[in-house]
Amino acid sequence: MEYLAHYGPSLCVKFHGDLVYAANGPFLHCYNYHTGELKRRCRIFHRNKIHGICIGKDGGLLLYGGNSVLIADLQDVNERTCLMEREKSVNGWIISGEFSYSGDQVYLLTSYNKVIICDKFGRFMMNKSLREEKSILYSGSITVYSQDKVYINAGTVMGGILLWDLYAEKMVHNLKGHEGSIFFVTESADGRYVASCSDDRSIRLWDLRTGELLSVGWGHTARIWNLKFFDSGNRIVSVSEDCTCRVWEICQRGNNIDLIQQNIYEVHLTKNVWGVDVDSTGRKVVTTGNDGRIKITNLGDQLGTEEEQKCYTVEEIFDRTNVPLEKGEIIKGFEWFDFGLVAITSTGKIFLLSSTKDSWIYLTKNDKFSSYSITHGVPDENVIVFANNRGDLLLLKFSDDGERIVAKTEYHCSNLSKTTNCLIRKDSSSALLVLLESPNPRDHLVCLKFSLSTLTHLDTYHFTKPANFVSTCIDVHQNFLLIGSRFSTLAVYDLTATASMPYVIRNLNPGDTTTSIKHVEDQGSSSLFSVTNRDGYYNIIKVNLTQDASHRIIHSNKIVRGFLEGADFDDRGDFITFGFKSSLFYVYNETACYEVFSHICGGAHRQWKLSQDSKSYTLVYIKASDIYIKRFKKAATRETLFAGIHGREIRDITVQKHRKFNDGFLFCTASEDTTMKLMHIEPKSGRLTNYWTQRKHVSGLQRCQFINETLMISCSAREELFLWEIDAQAECSRPYMTLRQTLPTSSGNPDLRIMDFDVKFDSKGENFIMATVYSDSAIKLWLYNHKENSFSLILSGHYKTCCLLNVLLEVLRDQLYLITSPTDGHLVYYNISNQIPFKIDVDDNSLTFGDLKLCESELPEFDCKLQVHQSGIKTIDSVMKTNGDLVIFTGGDDNALGITVASVNKSTAKICARVADFQEKAAASTITSCNLICNATKLLTTSVDQTLRLWSVTEEKLVLIDSSYTTIADTGSSDCVSIDESTNLALVGGVGLSVVQLS
Amino acid sequence: MGKSSKDKRDLYYRKAKEQGYRARSAFKLLQLNDEFHFLDDPSLKRVVDLCAAPGSWSQVLSRKLFQDERATADRKIVAVDLQTMSPIDHVTTLQADITHPRTLARILELFGDQKADFVCSDGAPDVTGLHDLDEYVQQQLIMSALQLAACILKPGGTFVAKIFRGRDIDMLYSQMGYLFDRVTCAKPRSSRGTSLEAFIVCQQYNPPSGWQPRLDLDQSVQEFFQGCFRGSDSPDVGPWHETPRDIAPFMACGSLDSFDSDATYHGQDLQGDSDVPRRSLDPVQQPTNPPYKQALELKRKGKLTRAV
Ligand SMILES: C[S@@+](CC[C@H](N)C(=O)[O-])C[C@H]1O[C@@H](n2cnc3c(N)ncnc32)[C@H](O)[C@@H]1O
């Protein structure tokens, strides 16, 4: 077994020049944060995770975690990929470590409030402690002021903070006031302050000299794990279980010192941010969390300084341009350009703001656009379009610097008596399409074409408007115009055949208003478009625009929360969404799952526009009739050095073994955090790419499994079971996945879990039967009809009242069996052949379903029941022997591994089962997963004791041949795929994910 | 930990209320006893219940030890927890941290020079989510309990403690093996199969002959056990080495017909069960006073919003 890669909780992180050192389990990773390149990866410890990193003045490196410590030089990490042989063990859990002032000694604070002092080679020198204060610590820190002044801060469970002088071994202060265990405590480098946090979720600032409490900072909504002073001890950054990182300012007003929360950043996925560091300029924060993400947040760019945010009142604009303001006159519309802003008022006055000069200019007044106007622009062409409700249009084109108007067109569309909507889009030939819509459902949609260089009118198209259609957004691709509407509807028009009826797609998702349509890429003769809906749904649809137009939804998902106003793929292929949530406007990276920025603007009900160029986003909006311009610089460096995986336990993993994608494999993870991720693994390096995070489940997942080349099933509590279709075409930049069908539920009980499922396809590989087992002991059998896309129940019953953990559907000697494992440790066999009409092909054991009259039948009595384990069977795998016997491998909560052989007794036609092998102490804890590999000659098991074990299977006996410790806690799932004759790749999940090569 | 509606549907929760226990945990001890019968020994007189709040184990102990009101001379139950506990008949309660050596000294004082027959600990620290740290703290809690057991147990006595079967559990099994003749990992059916929780049942207290347990207020637990376990007398800093590990036999406790704590029971299941009352039940445990009470209060008032 060889570890190719590991992804999981990262507990600490450090900036050093252009580099970021981040812990990753027992490995130390080193990134260049400008390029995002992973420069080094070095194994540090045998078993322990790295909990702390210190870099000494002269390049000394101190790493610690658990009872392990390693003292080395940064140079060693550059030259070596493994430093494990230099690992030292300490008597106790190391809470904190630090280099001495001269750098030639190391202090280690252990969990019983004892400091071990050793030299650079890890040789013990002496112990220091505080008399009779040896109860357990959750946190602590060491501050080195000089060669002989060293302060220890020890965070206890019940006794507050013990601040003591190391060499004097005397208490300096016992800081009391927090409720609950102290989770972090630190001193500012200048010796002014102590900052601490505890289970009470507050941050407390203390005067180090007097021990007096100065201020209490509230804000975090869960426990705080780490604090760091920066900006010469004038600011503090905190990270928490609530997934945020917050910046606090220490404000001195007279004699009062206050801790003021300055900014909040959502940085990690549920839940826990562990590590934090600030770079030497105080402008960048790096955080690491349980999701394994290494996130860089730019503080400097979001501070809301003058250059970043501007606000103009209407009065100010009129004042500055010396134009008299009419009573009740307000801004009605605007568009942002490189040179600045163009805005129109409610009396039809048009103003221009030059962003470089910060000056307003009055351009013109057009009475046609008073009282009602719609404004749109094409920023990269410097073109703005105003429309009113009587079919009038005013088009203006500006010079690049905004100084001159280079083209101007006024146009009246006489075909429509009233126009209530106007949408515009630049097409591929650099012409501008303007869509006008009247409120009358019988009126045509009118589309006008203008030259973008001269603004001359080129063409007019008339389109029939579908029923129930209110246009909301448009896109143009080749000669097709796609118009989005309310009622989650979309119409596709051919600009070359305007007389033909549109191709209409209705009920794309459960939402209402379609907010954006964007061409994504082409796939053969089809085109892919992303479509967003204000209610949070987004889809990718594949539209074939040839003669017989057709479409398919190939991707469906929903954002975390809030309103979705639009989305697009960026240069790196990441899907970027934006919209509103409560009082915030947000831009979110949906692929990597992090917030790019958010801004408090007051909420969704306002005029706003987002525009972007390669360097920045500009959000312009109106709040209380004032106009606000907020610019966010796009990060010049990478925002994530590693995007991370799930922040909570991965409960199941399934690899698409039927076919490869992009020289690797697609796989799916099902997590306790209620999401699933569709990812890709590159088998040589173990490198992961995350494509999508699916949020359809509302409860923590139990299982997921690919059932053929394109379909996958996932299940969880609330009786949720979803059938997914994965569209993975080699010519596409990424795979897509959409929900195909949902299994009917029987009750509203939120605790009712579908624990497992198994399927058997018919011989055509289209329809399948599926067994599901439940936490209330229910057993059900379903038929999935491919053509009708429907699940129908064909059989149901109960085992007893205990929870069922696994299920298998197997054909044994022309009989169909359902085998389940309850929490009572038995394997229970049901012969269901008589309950469902089917034929079994004796050659390949495949099924042909008869004319299934979908009668619901009762589960028959079980054929056989055999106790294999003392308690729950957690995992099961099986193989059919050539003689027709079924060999079942089971791993239990009782630490044991069993082999059961089941065969059909020829005379009684009943199942006979026997336990062929039983390894009582197969692991030190629950065995959570097992996978047969190498033609069922080997079995890989995982256990919560964090050990992977490889067993050989010969003559129905198990022999342990290899075992390897994994840093993944709650080790709960695995899947294997063979990459060549002799090599298998195992993906092991729990709190994190490991990629192991088995040869 | 707050009580979710899931807990309320839990049959053990209902049964606890029915039988007057303060927590569903009572059934864990009862089911362990079904298998090991350590509480059925008529000579059982003096017991210590560590990490005892809200007190359902103490209730079980009190009922077992004092069921026969006549023969109660020199019987004693001492219960210790960080949290306050409302009084239980025949139980002396102490509010203290069991990882603090001073607490152990106070318990020893309560017993005078008498030995105890049985020491148990159902303790669980606050979980941080850092699995290795949580498991370490849990093991330290067990070591503190074991330290007391070592000082107070009569030879042949029994020690029972809650464990989490994580990565270093085999190390703990091995250490227990130095002090007891029989060490078993037991899982009562009332403990959820999805949780790592189990109980280590150590029978026949029999410490190494050369080792004298001696409580010293200035010593940490680790120092206390130096010379007792092999490998525990390691220097403060030394080369990395594997620690001895051992897998204890596993024992599922409670009969197969007892309620399954992983199962989902519906309304009709409950009505069919005469044991379970149909009316709604008051919470079994008293509401606790969490350290983050003030934070919750601020949140409720909308003072912890994202707006800054
Ligand atoms: C699961 S509860 C015990 C339930 C108890 N056996 C019953 O049946 O009611 C765990 C208890 O351990 C206590 N505990 C945790 N750490 C402790 C410590 N260091 N000292 C004393 N008690 C502790 C907690 O306060 C909590 O009440």
Protein model, in words:
Chain A: It is found in: Cytoplasm. Chain A: Belongs to the WD repeat WDR6 family. Chain A: WD repeats lie at residues 175-216, 217-250. Chain A: One of its GO terms (cellular component) is cytoplasm. Chain A: Pfam families: WD40. The complex is a heterodimer of chains A (999) and B (308). With 999 residues, chain A is an all-beta fold. Chain A is built from two helices and 86 strands. In chain A, a hairpin with a 4-residue loop joins strand 16 and strand 17. The N and C termini of chain A lie close together (7 Å). Chain A is flat, with a radius of gyration of 33 Å. Chain A has a domain at 310-455: Methylamine Dehydrogenase, Chain H. Chain B is α/β, with parallel strands linked by helices and 308 residues long. Chain B has a single domain (6-300), classed as 3-Layer(aba) Sandwich (Rossmann fold), CATH 3.40.50.150. Chain B has an eight-stranded mixed sheet, sandwiched between helices. The radius of gyration of chain B is 21 Å and the shape is globular. Residues 1-5 and 271-283 of chain B have low confidence and may be disordered. At the A-B interface, strand 9, strand 12 and strand 25 of A face helix 6, helix 7, strand 8, strand 9 and helix 10 of B. Strand 9 of chain A pairs antiparallel with strand 8 of chain B, so a sheet runs across the interface. The structure holds S-adenosylmethionine. The site of S-adenosylmethionine has 23 residues of chain B, from helix 4 and strand 2.
